[in-house]
Model the fold of this input.
Amino acid sequence: MEAVARIEACLETAIEMATADPCPPKLAKAVHYSVFPGGARVRPLLCLSVAAACSCDDDEVAEGAAAAIELLHCASLVHDDLPCFDDADMRRGRKSVHALHGQPLAVLAGDALIVEAFNTLTRACAKKPERLAPLVSIIAASVGMAGGIVAGQAWESEKNIDISKYHRAKTGSLFVGAVTSGAIAAGSDPSLWRPLGEKIGEAYQIADDLLDAVGTRQESGKPVSQDDNFSRPNAVSRYGLEGAMARLKSIVHDAADSIPDCKGGDELRELIIAQATRLVPAKLANHAA
Done:
């Protein structure tokens, strides 16, 4: 709970600075609505957890990296919901940004959050400037091209979709960015943590596919059956329901086992297992244990 409070405080500071006068009032409201109230804050929580496990010597850098990751995640959700992509009218159990504020402001809010993510990161590294360049590099790679969120969204425009590349880019990339930026924030080797991010990303994507396939709109907080509606490749169509569940269980445990030897390893394992399975629909929860 302490880590979540730190994340929220950092996000509040970032958004307060970004939306201060002379920011246009409607844009300020759309930006704030895009971030608060948030979801589980899984990605920034992982970032802080890895930083702590690596004995981070500067909380400000770690918190800035975590907040940047979450702002980029929020931006991706705003854009993903737009009519040109998922055309989703609901997100986190309420109206999506474009459904409430209109498409122009939704596009601008998403763009603004991307910029503010890197502003937040820059401010956080003021006392540790040597960590800024590697953090910018690895976080930018997780959201851009050729294998970040932008690439993941672009795969949906291809006639033949490589499901592995699609899922690694659209979902896995930001998890990789979260855990590796946590390591960099602590002055540790990010390559040791990359396998963890990759496995968590895959597990999270499978859980989300299961929720989309058999979950409810109330449970999900957003429209369901989107994969079928848009004929997208997904874990359920590829492995079947039972196969997807089995794969999820296996990958979650593989992710926990991939954690490098560190002081907070046990706590991090518990966090991973809890977070990676939380999206499983209630009717399938017993099978995910």
